[in-house]
Input
Amino acid sequence: MLNKSYNKFFPAPESLSRPCFGLDISDESIKYIQLIETRNGMQVGKYGSVSIPAGVIDSGKIADQNRLKEILCTFRNKQNIKYARASLPEEQVYLFKVKVPKEGSENIREMIELSFEQYVPIPPAEVVFDYELYSEDKDVFEVEVTAIPSVIIEKYLNVFENCNLDIPSFELEAQALSRAVIKDGDKDTYMIVDFGNHRTGISVVSQGMVVFTSTVDVGGSMLTNLIQKNFNIPFEEAEKMKVKYGLTRNTENHDVFSILLNGVSILRDEISKHFLYWHTHKDENGKEHPPIKKIILCGGDSNLIGFTEYLSIGMKQTVELADVWTNVTFGGDYVPSISFEDSLSYGTAIGLALADFVYE
Output
């Protein structure tokens, strides 16, 4: 029997199966969080964010290894971190499903590689991949494959190793995020929208697995830039206006509302496009996709006032803010010090940290 795999790209050796940090690495920051298991349940340890200057990481590719090494080494020493699970950039990852016959499944990795030409535009020898069991019937396994160019992951590994930071596993952002916001064991289908500062990740989770991902170059900073340009004010002041007024429409902020509406309508259209595609196109087996139960919002800019209601009304779908603590069992009266609004930025990091408890 083929077992469902939980390890991504690199397994967690027994010697490293201990609580560690989740590191959500993007082009502009590293968000980190630590979950600690106590006799009374889990608690949040250290958490925070470290800025990454422009040009160090570009669309998930490390452009300046030395500068990233300096940032990570300083971070490691300051926080006294030895182990961490890290995210991989969705822009550089290929996600697809293939069928393999049960007969001969002892050579499943070789059989998966034979399908690469259809899904991955680089030779199998230049790719690192892992897979999970998605479904099976009498004769066939259907597996979901996550693949990334070796050169991408080797650069990340090199930087971490040079900082003496052990990485038991790497994982796709969307996979870690779904572990944080979808209840363990929930097999329904959801769309997760990670509305970040510079980009938005859109993913679909079904049967407890991420089956689709896409990245849209629309983020909260674009909205702020629109306000800044329109009113000719500093970026920081424009950001305050965005946070204060959001998508509420009244006499005081009529102009801000109109500006933001133009920006978020672009994102809504992208979300709608993927939502419609999911429901109107059949899967690889010619079957209709299961309907998306609801849209879950997370990311720092998902807090924009009125954004949830705007999407819900515009798409005529259930839309709600994520609970990133869905699978974290806090004990007693413990309440994490991080606010709900801020926690929406830490979904991926929380999902990575939760992997320690999954592996145990």
Remarks:
- The chain has eleven helices and 15 strands.
- The two ends are 21 Å apart (CA to CA).
- Residues 185-322 form a domain with the Nucleotidyltransferase; domain 5 fold (CATH 3.30.420.40).
